[in-house]
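Q: I'm writing up a methods section and want to include an example of the input and output format. Could you take the sequence below and give the corresponding predicted structure tokens, formatted cleanly so I can copy it straight into the document?
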Amino acid sequence: MLFTELLDELPWSTETGKPAPDSLMAYYEDQYISHSVLMHEANEVIAHVRTKYKVGMITNGRTLIQQGKIDRLGIRELFDFIIVSEEAGVKKPNPQIFELAASKLGLRTAECLYIGDHPVNDIEGASKAGMATIWMKVNQPWRDELEAKPLHTISQLNELLRLI
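A: Here is the clean output for your methods example:
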């Protein structure tokens, strides 16, 4: 678990000592949500896409944290649906979560375009489910062994405006 590694690797104050794993997790849940930031021009891009298409979100993670970020950012109303992996009982890159998203849209996966930033979880997963993809190259490097071939690669969300 990440928090166990953090407890082992980080230099902790000798005065207070290492926090308990539960305390570290509680701090993370509280602070992570409150420090969420929206990508540049996200509201404008999603609003533009919604004039032409249905829009959904699939996010991996714990429900409390993911829903908290969505609410803090004020983006819930921008989406026709939101799937959080903990609630769905399956997470990306499992094709089932992408199939669930397509069914919520009333579409087949072949009729969907998935935009994501993680080469494996987003692009490989959506591709294996039968979706076309656009990779947003941000933090995760592409792996040569991946079978997926995104239609486009972008580095800024607003680049979608010229593609969609």
